[in-house]
Amino acid sequence: MKKYQEILALTASILVIVLVLGAFTALVTPKRHGYGSTWGHYLAEEPDSIDVLFVGSSLTYCNVIPALFWEKTGLTAYDVTGPALTVPGEYYFLREALKTQSPSVVFIEITAALYQRYTGHTDTMLGYIPWGENRLLAVLNEAEPEKIGGLLFPMLTYHSRWSELEEDDWKVFRHGYEPDLLAGYTYLGVARSIPEYTVRTDELDREVMARNMEYLHRIAGICLEEGIIPVFYESPAAAVMPQEEMDKVRADLAAIDGAVVVNFNDFRDEIGAALDYDYYDALHYNTAGAEKFSRFLGEWFMENLTVQPKADQDAQLWQSRLEYILGLLETPMTVK
After folding, report:
1. pTM, whole model, 2 decimals?
2. Could you read off the pLDDT of 230-271 as tens digits, one per residue?
3. What is the sign of the dihedral through the CA atoms of 262, 263, 265 and 266?
4. Are 270 and 229 in contact (CB under 8 A)?
5. Contact at 8 Å (CB) between 101 and 49?
6. DSSP 228
């Protein structure tokens, strides 16, 4: 009996220690409200309330405004993104996102097909995925070896923030995240003049590119198994990846039965974004440009896909989101 009590006491002690360390980690980890990896806000959405997911890097969270897409299509949407999110990252993000939502369509940004394996944003990209199988697999398979320890035990990285905690840290710790009025989009109120359209000179790694294509096919498989339409798209930019290589990527994906492939750089005139005002930098729209692209995206969607909105969507929430972004759009750009 005494032996049993000792084991029970030890187990209880370990459990308490784990809970305390878990709570401490949640408190000191920096809170995310923008620029991708905003999983806390995403999980605050009502389950099975999102019709369309946009999955990708900053080329998604800077360019797609879900509230304007909803205004045009009547479909709820969310940007599930991470900074410099790689294709394997997109795969794990989608797997995690589908735990709480059952969209009819998923847009996957494919510029990442030419990314390097490590993009310099691993800590933020993977460090906010909810705890579970997807986080574990993403960290073990996609993080630089020297970063794995800090990602699996983030207290090692953030414990020094204890003396720097702000009101927002305590608020989120006590009450959790609230639904994001921008639905994953990040507001950019700065306009920079871009001289001309250019082609990026990123170094291409053929082995990594082949691996990325394997993961894009896995993403297609997940979508098609779940009855989701996968839309593989290249986000419009003033500086694009080498188009000969992107043509190969698009051709490969177009051979997948049930997949939709589109290069929105082909619609620059229809989108109408101006190089001298609608860009934050050569890769991203500012909010003025994102407005034009998001409205065009809604029109393109209505012309090319037929999807019925969810009957139980929170119209009041989405109206609030629309009014919020319309208010931001009235703010003049800061021109630099």
Report:
1. 0.93
2. 999 999 999 999 999 999 999 999 999 999 999 999 999 999
3. negative
4. no
5. yes
6. P
